[in-house]
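Hi C.,

You asked whether I'd gotten around to modeling the 111-residue construct. I have! Everything is below, sequence then structure, no commentary in between.
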Amino acid sequence: MNEFFGADISEENQISMIAGVFGKAVEDEALVAQAKSNTLGKFAIGDAPNQIKNWMIETHGEQTERNEQNTRQMDQIKSILFEEEKFEKFASAMITAIHKAVREQGRSSAP
């Protein structure tokens, strides 16, 4: 996780961001449908990167409202949105995890 956020961000805040984005992704019916019906490569060039940016912003707001002490670290995490190389690595890792989880969930719920 440090490769995305840096070593000075607490593990709790890193996990909060990842869990926030992941949770929003697997609850988004349109994104789940895209993941189920596309290869990872096609899924990665669809709406997922833009959605991940939006969910990072939402999660940032939720976490800073929840605990003002997190504001500085969450602002540092949010800075990834403006560092293209870091965001691409983060988005790629999230897209891979989301795609895998959604497709595995589909297999486990098959009759």
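If it helps when you're writing up: The helical segments are 2-5, 11-27, 29-37, 40-44, 48-66, 71-78, 84-108.

Thanks,
B.
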